[in-house]
Automatic annotation (TrEMBL):
Superkingdom of origin: Archaea
SUPFAM superfamilies registered for this protein in UniProt: DNA-glycosylase (SSF48150)
EC number(s) on file: 4.2.99.18
A molecular-function term among this protein's GO annotations: DNA binding
InterPro entries: DNA_glycosylase, HhH-GPD_domain, HhH_base_excis_C, HhH_motif, Nth
This protein's name: Endonuclease III
Organism: Haloarcula limicola
Keywords: 4Fe-4S, DNA damage, DNA repair, DNA-binding, Endonuclease, Glycosidase, Hydrolase, Iron, Iron-sulfur, Lyase, Metal-binding, Nuclease
Required co-factors: [4Fe-4S] cluster
Comment on bound cofactor: Binds 1 [4Fe-4S] cluster.
Length: 227
């Protein structure tokens, strides 16, 4: 079993340092060219792969260029245009509602506050954090997706289960200058090495400090279940 550092703060800093070396070009993997496209892409990415979202938005963004375009379309048409995205019917409604709200309440511009963004249909704190960070250069939190949720528990950075509670724990131990990059680093590592079902501990640069390392540990701290 790996041996974590004495404090969670030290553990978090070591994780960040090592993953920076492993993934020097780590960044967001969704394709977009403006704030509206970013917002739409992140909403579509919920429970769907970024690769699939990028495939669908390649055509979507040519057809819908403004909030007015989304507001004018029917939910059924939008659902058809994003067919292949998980929960496309629900998300078609979200896109129409977002378009209407941006036009009616925000002068056609994507707002730059957490409170305003989370009033949009289909937008929670995770989505809002991504839009703030990459659309407005406002970093006030850590995006906790499924990879961050899994790896932060495996690495002993939190024992919480809900994303909101995990984020609060991470904000206390991850250096503020790394809040944005922390998410991308853990996503890259989760995809490449530390998968939900296929954790390759023998290839992991964090194995010696990971309390879930399955060479000795019998339990995956992400799930609480035996390996």
């Amino acid at each position: 079993m790996g041996t974590p550092l004495e404090s969670r703060g030290a553990q978090a800093e070591e994780v960040v340092d090592r993953l920076h070396e492993e993934y020097p070009d780590s960044t967001i993997s969704l394709n977009y060219s403006n704030r509206l496209e970013l917002l739409v892409a992140v909403v579509l990415s919920a429970q769907c792969t970024d690769e699939r979202v990028n495939e669908v938005t390649a055509e979507l963004f040519e057809k819908y260029e403004t909030p007015e375009d989304y507001a004018a379309a029917s939910e059924e048409q939008l659902a058809e245009d994003i067919y292949g995205i998980t929960f496309h019917n629900n998300k078609g409604g979200y896109l129409k509602g977002i378009g209407e709200k941006i036009v009616a309440e925000h002068g056609g511009e994507v707002p730059d506050t957490m409170s305003e963004l989370t009033e949009f249909p289909g937008v929670g704190r995770k989505t809002a954090n991504v839009v703030l960070q990459h659309g407005h250069d406002v970093v006030e939190g850590i995006v906790v997706d499924t990879h961050v949720q899994r790896l932060s528990r495996r690495l002993g950075l939190t024992e919480e289960e809900r994303p909101e509670a995990i984020e609060q724990d991470l904000l206390e131990v991850v250096p503020e200058t790394e809040w944005q990059q922390f998410t991308h680093l853990l996503i890259d590592h989760g995809r490449a090495v530390c998968g939900a079902r296929t954790a390759e501990c023998g290839e992991c640069v964090l194995a010696d400090i990971c309390p879930s390392e399955k060479g000795d540990s019998e339990v995956d701290l992400a799930s609480g279940e035996p390996w």
